[in-house]
Amino acid sequence: MIRAKDTTWLLLICLLIGQFYVRTHGTPIDETKDDYQDDDYYSDNEEDPLEDETPPVVDTPAARPYFEESDLRIEAKPGDDVVLNCDVRNFMINNAVMWYKNTTMIVNGNTAVVPRFEAMKNNSIFLQNVTPADSENYYCVILPQDVRQRTTLRVGARLSILCDDRDITDRSQTFRQGDHHKLECRTYLPGEPTIKWSFNGIRIESSPSDEEKGVIVLDNIDDVNAGVYQCLADDGSHDPPHGMVTIDVQYSPKVSTHRHHVNTEEGGFAEVYCNYRANPIARSFFVKEGKTIQLSEKYSLRDSVHNGHNRTTLIIRDVEESDLGEYLCHVENAIGYNEVKVHVSYKPETPQFEDMKLEGTKVTMHWLVRSLQPLSEAMLDYKLSGSYTWSTVSVLETHRHNQTGGIWKITHQLDLPRRGMWHARVKTKNPYGWSNFSPDHDFTIQADGEGSYEPSDADLPPDQIVQAGIGLGGRGTASALAQMPLGGVILAALLLRQIRQL
Ligand SMILES: *[C@@H]1O[C@H](CO)[C@@H](O)[C@H](O)[C@H]1NC(C)=O
Ligand SMILES: *[C@@H]1O[C@H](CO)[C@@H](O)[C@H](O)[C@H]1NC(C)=O
Ligand SMILES: *[C@@H]1O[C@H](CO)[C@@H](O)[C@H](O)[C@H]1NC(C)=O
Ligand SMILES: *[C@@H]1O[C@H](CO)[C@@H](O)[C@H](O)[C@H]1NC(C)=O
């Protein structure tokens, strides 16, 4: 600061300007003209507030004050102290300085009229501890000639979220499936704040391998990346800066079914399920033997919503031989399409693992199977992880039940002598043939005989289930003993029970 010498400086400036004035008198300077013409701040504005105050002084062109640059730009961080200069040339004793923040006067002569601004003796203004709200166009205006210089001050936010180097703080953004984008949380804070990202409310732990601090790289973007990303710069304060962005992802439909094989019977009906999610909105239709299925007496459609996905169900009435075979569900939107195949047949559906119980080395497992026709046989395969061949338990040559159709439950107990990871799978047979094998069910027999297993995420048949068991055994035990490759004692019993519908 130069307050102590205020008067001295003022005198000195006046003297210097006086000399300059004398020396340049009568020498027109092109820049001054340009400056004057460039100055369009009020040129197309009839209501120039300064015009009225301007006394009609006789202007000597050579003596006009001017700026070497009419436009300045200052980039600052929040909390910075900023000096806005007004480095005018040809400043005369009769000239006065006014400062404007956009259209608001902030300094009149050498007196600040708006708090926080400080007028300096060299016509500059000083602004302490700037905030993003100070970002504006500032004008230093030299009267009476109305020569002005614009200074654009930009104060960055304390924290910004950039997507591919573009500021998207507190906005939403749409990505496309397969895109690659980079989200960066940038702060302008003293010290080293800890950048904390979260996604849909769950903290994203940054791995030490992250090349750049505060950067999230999204590769091969998919629907799982859609959601709210929040960034917080933990600077230890009570009010740490934070920001968020909402990411929307457009993707081609995700199509699935929970029943790849649908069992039905002659004269009955069949339901073909097509589950999908899509953004933007998708349309679905079914195809059989290359032809799109049209609604008719035979075919109807039902739309429903099931925890997070949409389902279209094709209902086939009065089933006959020609209705069996492969149905294709085709779902498409603006991004693309996907399909799922469903087989309609008279054979049993693929068995689904239901649950299991481990007691020491004894394992009891349950599967569920749909077949309107009676099951005549079931086969269970099991093996220790790493062995090449399956051991097979086969029961029920032909066993007829008096039933009206529905879901069957297969229960099987094994005594496994070896610790380790085991795999088990099941298939069943009805008069029309064998089902596919169920997916392998994996479980572990621990060292102390205690077991654990990963719960299967296979969908259970949705219909109501009532147990009505018919116990069977004997043969299963025999074949298991005969085929057990490890020579241990195996107690195996396969229990096949029909579950009647309510
Ligand atoms: C005016 O004075 C301030 C404070 O001494 C200084 O930072 C600034 O650079 C000066 N401006 C000019 C144009 O000399
Ligand atoms: C400047 O002021 C005018 C009139 O008050 C206003 O319309 C404009 O938005 C302001 N410019 C900025 C950058 O704030
Ligand atoms: C389900 O479909 C409706 C309209 O048919 C749509 O508004 C909604 O977004 C869809 N839901 C999903 C998860 O695709
Ligand atoms: C099944 O049982 C019902 C009544 O319980 C009987 O009327 C029917 O004849 C039985 N069907 C067969 C195939 O045994």
UniProtKB/TrEMBL annotation:
Matching InterPro entries: Ig-like_dom (IPR007110), Ig-like_dom_sf (IPR036179), Ig-like_fold (IPR013783), Ig_I-set (IPR013098), Ig_sub (IPR003599), Ig_sub2 (IPR003598)
Region (Disordered) location: 28-62
Keyword Nucleotide-binding: no
Signal peptide start and end residues: 1-26
Domain spans labelled Ig-like: 55-142, 144-248, 253-345
Swiss-Prot/TrEMBL keywords: Signal
Name of the molecule in the record: Ig-like domain-containing protein
Organism whose genome encodes this protein: Drosophila ananassae
Gene behind this protein: Dana\GF11887
